Structures are given as structure tokens and as C-alpha cells.
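Might you be able to consider the sequence and fold that I enclose below?
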Amino acid sequence: NTLIIDEVSMLSNEGKEKIIKRFPNHKIIFCGDLGFQLPPIEGTEFQIGKLPVIKHTTNHRCKCLKLKKCLDLLRKRISSSPRDEMDFSKFTKLFDIDIISAEPRHAFTIHSIQGETATEKLFIDMNKMKSVRMLYTALSRAKYLNQIILIRSKTIKKKKLTKHEIRRKQNPSI
């Protein structure tokens, strides 16, 4: 029997070890873009260790030369300095991507769309962008650069409550 586990960048090393232990007599194929896409939310990042590796370098999702150049630049940046932060304003100028101001009404986290292919416009909130890997994961969901719209969500200023308002929220009968 063969198990194929895709999107292993989201799988923790602990999860990988459990799978190997649980299925000792199976062929297990782990597939994914390790080191470039977002790491798992919990646990340590997937470690290849002594597992045999076959590298595939063709991006089958990307259908646009301009987007491919953009993704390649991000991969190069991640490879050279994986913990490095990036000035995203320089990035958007380099690839002629505008940032618009908008207020998202419905959204997915980048972790939740990892593995998906966007078929329509992809609105990416740059206010939430924390790393180059996060940006790479978000952009790599698209087939074409013209699908991507970078936004700066409007920040909602929260009113500071008085002590009386806080007490009234905690105990509405006051």
C-alpha cells in the first residue's frame, strides 16, 4: 500500500513521525514545497532527515511568466535568508502591483488556502503580511499575476471605554 501526503509544509515533524510509525509497512510519499510555504501552526517544522528526496522544480499552477518571475524572486529571497523580513513596498513596485485601500468582508487565512488554486481574483491584505514565506504562499495560489490584488485593509479605531462602560458591559444590570 502507498500513502501520498500532500502539502507537507503544513505537517509538523511530530505528525510526520506518527504517520511513519503508524504505517511501517507502507510506502509513504510526502509532497510539498518545504521551506518556502508557511510552516505548520503547531509543532516543529517538517524535517526531511534521512528520507530520500526527489526534487520537482516545475510549477504547474503558474501560467504567467510575470508571476513566475515574482515567485522565483521570493523563493530566491527565502533561500538566501529564510527569516528575513521584506520591504513589501519595494516588492510591489518591482512587479508593478498596486496596493488599494479596502475593507475585506469575507476572508480566508493564508494557512487555510494553502494547497488551493485561485480561479478568480485573489485579494491579499498586506497589513497582515508578516514574512516573505507568507507572501510567497499567498501569491502562489494564483495562476496569473492579474488575478492578484494587494490591499491595505482599513484599520478600525477602537474607542477607549470608560471604567463605567466596562462595568456595564461586564454586568448589564447596572
Summary: The longest helix spans residues 65-80.
